[in-house]
Amino acid sequence: MSLLSRITQRPRVYNRLHALGVVNAYSQTHPEERACLCRHIAKAKSAVEIGTFMGLTAAELARALPADAILYCVDPYPGGGEPLQQIALRQIVRAGAAPKVRFVRADSAGAVASLSAQVDFFFVDGDHSYEGLAADWKIVK
Ligand SMILES: C[S@@+](CC[C@H](N)C(=O)[O-])C[C@H]1O[C@@H](n2cnc3c(N)ncnc32)[C@H](O)[C@@H]1O
């Protein structure tokens, strides 16, 4: 296990290092995957990311959106997830994308009432279990 992987298990430590600019937000997505998502999101007016974690993908997606668009970042951040949410918020602020982002601290099912009625783009990256994806898919449909 690399040092970076080990530090991702310690959100409070990671948050401090991120605040100091020692580490960037972590994501399992590949830069080319994010570039592909950014191409597809570029004309959306309203977009949703289910599962935001440290906000690396959210920051890039929000930057790629038109100026008047909104990205809803849905994540329950369970079990004392404040440090992770702080990292995500900082990552998005540093990307200059904060005006386009709304955090919804809930799981996908609990977030529905907070989303706009029309959503042009979903990035589903939350609970990757069969049951989790099935629940997310009901919302996307
Ligand atoms: C793989 S990470 C997301 C990474 C992020 N999309 C990125 O690439 O930067 C998964 C996140 O989904 C969140 N999550 C788990 N179940 C969820 C659900 N039902 N609805 C929304 N988020 C969920 C977890 O708290 C975790 O932060």
- CATH homologous superfamily classification: Vaccinia Virus protein VP39
What multimeric state do the chains show? Answer: single chain
Shape-level CATH architecture:
3-Layer(aba) Sandwich
Q: Return the CATH class.
A: Alpha Beta
Give the mean pLDDT. 95
Total beta-strand segments = 4
Q: How would you characterize the largest beta sheet?
A: 4 strands, parallel
Structural class: alpha/beta
The helix content is 40-55%
Total tally of structural domains: 1
Low-confidence runs: none
Please state how the strands of the largest beta sheet are arranged side by side: 3-2-1-4
Shape descriptor reads: globular
Number of helices: 7
Query: Which ligands are bound?
Result: S-adenosylmethionine
CATH structural fold name: Rossmann fold
Radius of gyration computed on alpha carbons:
15 Å
Instruction: Assess the beta-strand content as a share of residues.
Output: 5-15%
Q: Spell out the helices and strands N to C.
A: HHHEHEHEHEH
End-to-end separation: 38 Å
